[in-house]
Specification:
This protein is an alpha/beta fold. The protein contains 15 helices and 13 strands. Strands 2-1-3-4-5-6-13 form a seven-stranded parallel sheet, covered by helices on one side. It has a six-stranded parallel sheet with strand order 9-8-7-10-11-12, sandwiched between helices.
């Protein structure tokens, strides 16, 4: 059943919901068109799948369109994604040609109709070439990744498109670059009532563990992420093997394939090769379209959640784990330090050895783990739930019609 905004009153309070309705009234008559590169897999698609229906429920007409592209196109945009994170990639003239040819095909096929056209991440960024054909429309580029240390040539290539937009959105001030246009800082969020995040019973948790052949009587250390080198699944395995020398526990690597990430199969093969025949390490392919409940059960059934990323966007998997009051060990990268205050709402790490030490600390001290887990849940409640995200986006849309240079929401 589709959620209504009133369903969130027991969690965030009636005053917050009344405020959302007041803001939504000021957007009547405007249509918001979101455009990204995939309808399933990854945090962007998940956020849009929650935000779009609730904006419509508030009376703000909001649509969501997805560009099309072949394997060659997504291989190019994956290189761009990696380069934004600081990895050197060999982006050839043929790659650029593929990028522009796919953009041209999407311009021909995709109808642009929004009063506000909200473009997400680099894959559809060049649609801004159609701006003159849609006079009066406001264009926003939403960057979901940390671009604080990009490869210069790739950033320069994208910047030519970015500065034709009316505004940009980043997840944190530290993620951004200096640009000649207005910048808005809006953190992502999770939906506390989604199948992935709602409260479930102990019996339901045990049913998920049984489904995947996981023990219920030994500690589970779990990382939920796409199979992506930047998520460092091999580093997680190395850290776990250090933990395993001292604590009898199991590791779960639960992930999925995203339609716009052609490298995921290669990474999965590398992970399987590293694991080999270790029966205490479980590699799970969990379909993000149909198995949100399973992710919920896996996270709630785990003793420690890990997110040992090399680079990150905001890291919603961390937000999800904190919301479930799970103790979290995560790298101090991207948006993770915004969520985890070290030794208060979780533990931060900077290496394989550091991750192993922090995991052992939680496993050997359940009371400490529970205390930090409770602090993490409260931090998410105050800062990273969907109601706050809706408010920030609606204020962003209204701000497009004002004249201030930089707005922090």
């Amino acid at each position: 059943m589709e959620k209504r905004i009133e369903d969130y009153i027991p969690i965030v309070g009636r005053d917050n919901i009344d405020e959302l309705r007041l803001i939504a009234e000021k957007l009547k008559g405007k249509t918001i068109q979101n455009i990204n590169s995939t309808a399933v897999g990854g945090g962007v698609a998940e956020i849009l799948s929650r935000i779009v229906p609730l904006l419509n429920n508030l009376g703000v007409v909001t649509k969501w369109d997805v560009i099309k592209g072949g394997t060659d196109f997504f291989q190019v945009t994956k290189k761009i994604h990696n380069a934004l994170h600081g990895k050197r990639e060999n982006i050839t003239r043929n790659n650029i040609k593929t990028f522009f040819e796919t953009t041209k095909a999407n311009i021909k096929e995709l109808r642009l109709y929004g009063d506000i056209i909200f473009v997400h991440d680099p894959q559809p960024i060049a649609l801004i070439q159609e701006k003159k054909s849609h006079p009066g429309a406001k264009w926003i580029w939403r960057c979901h990744v940390d671009v604080s240390q990009p490869i210069t040539g790739v950033w320069r290539f994208l910047k030519k498109f970015i500065e034709r937009y009316d505004a940009t959105v980043f997840s944190a001030p530290s993620f951004a670059q200096k640009l000649k246009l207005r910048q808005f800082m809006i953190c992502p969020s999770i939906d506390p009532l989604s199948e992935k995040n709602r409260e479930i019973t102990r019996v339901e948790i045990l049913s998920v563990l049984k489904k995947y052949g996981l023990p219920h009587n030994k500690p589970l250390v779990t990382q939920v992420s796409r199979f992506d080198r930047l998520k460092d699944p091999l580093g997680v395995i190395d850290a776990f093997k250090l933990v395993q020398k001292r604590v009898d526990c199991h590791l779960v690597l639960a992930g999925s394939h995203a339609a716009d990430d052609p490298e995921s199969s290669e990474v999965l093969a590398e992970v399987r090769e590293r694991v080999k025949d270790d029966s205490n390490i479980h590699i799970l392919l969990v379909d993000p379209e149909t198995n949100d409940f399973d992710i919920n059960g896996l996270q709630r059934g785990s003793s420690v959640i890990v997110q040992k990323s090399i680079r990150e966007g905001f890291a919603l998997t961390v937000t999800e784990a904190l919301w479930k009051a799970r103790p979290v060990v995560a790298s101090a990268v991207g948006g993770i330090p915004l969520q985890i205050a070290h030794k208060y709402s979780g533990l931060l790490c900077h290496s394989v050895e550091g991750a192993a030490m922090q995991i052992k600390q939680f496993l050997n001290n359940p009371d400490y783990a529970a205390k930090l887990g409770a602090n993490g849940k409260e931090h998410v409640k105050q800062n990273f739930l969907l109601s706050r995200h809706l408010r920030d986006y609606m204020l962003l849309f209204l701000a497009l019609y004002s004249t201030k240079d930089i707005v922090y929401l």
